[in-house]
Design goal:
Blueprint lengths: L8 H8 L6 H46 L3 H15 L3 H28 L5 H15 L2 H13 L6 E7 L5 E7 L3 H6 L2 E2 L6 H8 L3 E3 L2 H4 L14 E8 L2 E9 L11 H10 L2 H4 L16 H11 L5 E9 L2 E10 L19 H4 L9 H11 L3 E12 L2 E14 L2 E8 L2 H16 L1 E7 L5 E3 L1 H7 L22 H13 L4 E8 L5 E12 L5 E10 L1 H38 L3 E7 L2 E8 L9 E8 L5 E8 L4 H18 L5 H14 L6 E9 L4 E7 L5 E3 L5 E3 L18 E5 L5 E5 L11 H13 L5 H10 L9 E8 L4
Helix pairs in contact: 2-3, 2-4, 3-4, 5-6, 18-19, 19-20
Amino acid sequence: MIGDESLTADEQTVDEQIVPVPASQVSANLARLADTVARLRGEVDHAQAVADGRALIELAKGVLMERLHCTPADAARQLETLAERAGLTALEFAADVVGEAAEDRITEVAQEFLARAEGEESVAVRLRTAESGVLAAGDTQRVAESILEHALRPLGATAVAVWLAGPDGSLTLAGSAGFSAEEAARWRYVPPGVATPARSALLERDLVWHPTLAGAGLPSIGQHTLAGGGRVAVPTGTGGRIIGVVEMCWPDPLPAEPGRLRRQLEALAELCAHTLDTWDGVVAPVAADGSGDFLGELVDFVDGLHDPAVLLSPCVDGGRLSDFRIHHANVRFADPGGRPRSRLVGTRLLETYPLAAEESGLLDKIQRVYATGEPFRADSMAVTTLVDQVPLTVLTDISVTRFAGNVLLILRIQDDAAKLAVLLQHAQRLGRIGGFEENVVTAAITWNTELFALYGLPATATPLSLNELAAHAHPDDAQAIGRFLRAVLHNRRPSSTAFRLQRSDGVARHIRVVAEPVVDGRGELVAVRGAYQDVSAQHWTEVALAATRDRLAETEQQAIERNRLTLQLQHAIMPPATGPIDMPGLRAAVRYRPAEKEHLVGGDWYDAVALPTGEVLLCVGDVAGHGIDAATGMVSLRNALRGLAATGAGPAQLLTWLNLVAYHLTDHVTATAVAAVYDPATRKLRWARAGHLPPIVRHRDGGATTLPLLRGSLLGAVRDVTYQEEELQLGEGDILLIYTDGLIERRDRPVQETVSRLVSLVKGHDGGLENQLDTLLTYSTADTDDDTCVVGIEVTGGK
């Protein structure tokens, strides 16, 4: 071929042997070549005309199908029939049909536009006026003034700023109108990375609409005087390449959505593109088709790269960037699908890599770099290629950079061996594993970097032989190391051992070494290879776990003994259940239910004893806490109250003395209690409470009430306390119930609600005293696993 530089050596030799020919023969050859070119051009024109005619006929058939609602075959017959009647060829008649259809559509569009523009100021007139001003202006500053005067002020805007986007993401104020000179001077340059409405539009490559600048939370020009007004930023450029942003300002808030105003603002922004392209001496980029000497230099630059690289040129269709064409690929570029470079160069990116716009979003990133000029870098990015309609995904390190209207794409496919080496390196570092290989024939020893670190040696130190292992270990580990070396070097079998490494820096480490022999075809030992692992952390963890297990076992045994003693003490004083107690004028019954969990053994206690005065002492208490301390505190308070009751004092006085006992004579014991003294002769009950829930009385008529909440704080909290006492007249058949909070306490409900439920349960029961207590325990809804104590007293006999 003419101009083909890829000639073989034989072809070049033949070409060098061609002798000069006469001028007449050259002229004849040129004439024949011209005739051939003319003939081929005519054939091409004829084929193109035929193709156009066929396309026009098919288009006319489509028009007839739409209007006559017929099939393609019927439309073809109608076209032939109508052409014969009109005395025209099928092609001429098809042209008339298509022209008429297009004319009708144009008329419809024109009428629709006029109807839409009727009754309001014509948008087209404003845009045409602004465009005329822009063309007359010629520089960006006058463009901004023209746009504000002719197009934006009728829309309510008061200021406009035109920004030039730099390749590093910076913004330079190329023109402004409506702002003071001082404000424009302060905002003449915005460094890269500063978040402003204009930068947001640059990054999003779309119109950014802020109803108020203050609501956007972004700084920008005019922010002090127009903070409460709306702000719109529109990117502008040509051929998909963004070269700047037009920022428009309103004094008042804007609606939430741009609506029909969006297209007008985008059209105004487009008017600024041609002046920004050459603003203030900035040279326009090389054309997208690669014209100019710079593109050739760029190709040479790509060929000189050590990385696989592809040079992409933008494809602009109808003024819109649609794709990129692979202009050049250097020799180091390897297609993920294995295709040769000759099949890739000249094709479009989406034709060659159709999935680039879907999964990885590679096309979008390339378009963003081309539009904004900001480079893109990514490691281990997944790129999917279709190979015989089968998707093939590879991990690649990608770099995308814009060069004067073109895009340089570097794709470095990660090699499996390299990935495995990196993984192995990280695994050895995380596991603190060092590998080695020792050649017993040449005495050559190879260590990896991690093994030098385990030994505390610099990477330039001489590796140590296995025979020197004992010299760097604790003396007590010499026998274990000797068995390990005999197994590997003499018995020629894999082995492992653990030892304490004594490093030169004084640090001792626990090391496990594993090795295997390497033998030749005759069974002779050639080398030993293996690995060291630092197991110090594991060793000390095992030591700590062993000590913890010993302490835990001892603690568990002590807890078991304490719980056993606590239960024995508790059951010796208060059995879990006891039969009825018959006393003068009353009948008493007790139900005691210990905690379900042994470690929650508490300090609930009760007592019912006849006093020397003929009266009966009744009491129920609850010591705070659980375990042996609560049980011993309960015993102290119960016995103290018994002794104090022998004085004949009333319940309030008894609780006052018992509070002093709890405060002074016990080890910080606090408790709640109810103390009552019942006189069988008069059936009167005197009672007092110390922070305890008041008793419940079930009357013989079936009603039930809670006694009032008398004044009195819990025992042992403060030294001087005055307790309130009250007298209650009981009748025959009345039942008095005194209980601890373990009967009603719930985590999810207030005490008042659970007490009310207990009163309802007592009121609805018709059985005897013991059956009443059993029912209360059975239907208890408490969920705190605490001790429960219930004492019931039923009045019997006469006065």
